[in-house]
Amino acid sequence: MTEQTDWPENVTARYLTVGGATVDLTHRLTVHTPPAPLATLASCTGCPTAEEFSHYRLIRGMTTQREEHEPAAADAKARAWAQSHAETCRAIPKPPVTPQQ
After folding, report:
1. Cα 25 to Cα 12: distance, rounded to the nearest angstrom
2. Which residue, among 18, 14, 1, has the nearest Cα to 87 in the 3D structure?
3. Confidence class of residue 32 from pLDDT cuts 50, 70 and 90?
4. What pLDDT is attached to residue 33?
5. By C-alpha distance, which of 97, 99, 89 is closest to 16?
6. C-alpha 90: how far from chain center
7. Where would I find the H helices in the chain?
8. Which residues contact 27 (CB under 8 A, 6 or more apart)?
9. How many alpha carbons fall within 13 Å on the CB side of residue 19?
10. Which of 22, 71, 87, 99 has its C-alpha lying 20 to 30 A from 34's C-alpha?
11. 59: Cβ–Cβ under 8 A, 6 or more apart, which residues?
12. Is the model more confident about 96 or about 54?
């Protein structure tokens, strides 16, 4: 069992990998869309793997197209990806950086 630590700021969900690292979900903001998030980012703290899931979906019609804002769908896809990655990632957590004296 690993020691419980505080979650980093802005982490909305966290999955523990089999190697003891975590897969953290955060919302990505841009200067163009505050305060609405642009995407949900799932990133592993043990390996360099990450996936981004857009909150926008392009709907194409016969003669037009439009964007729909669907953050719940992006969050659901990110959670599924994070769970799947956490079940197989064997990377161990990176050690904390300590200042040199």
Report:
1. 6
2. 18
3. low
4. 55
5. 89
6. 18
7. 71-88
8. 10, 12, 37, 38, 39, 40, 41, 71
9. 16
10. 22
11. 65, 66, 67, 68
12. 54
